[in-house]
Specification:
The chain has 51 residues and is mainly beta. The chain has one domain. The protein has no helices and 4 strands. The protein has a 4-stranded antiparallel sheet with strand order 1-2-3-4, with no helix packed on it. The two termini are 15 Å apart.
Length: 51
């Protein structure tokens, strides 16, 4: 899925959470990934995309 978006922005929202905003040509994200992290491992990813 990330191959569809040439630019990403990553923001830690807590010690165990990361948001990845995925951008194409538009100034608003085409997708947002919510990643849960434990230590150095990603334990889950939830994808949010507009319909």
């Amino acid at each position: 899925m990330l191959a569809d978006f040439p630019r990403t922005e990553v923001q830690a929202t807590g010690p165990d959470r990361v948001l990845v905003s995925c951008f194409g040509d538009d100034p608003v994200p085409g997708a947002v990934l919510h990643c849960a992290v434990e230590g150095g491992d990603v334990t889950s990813v939830t994808v949010f995309r507009p319909r």
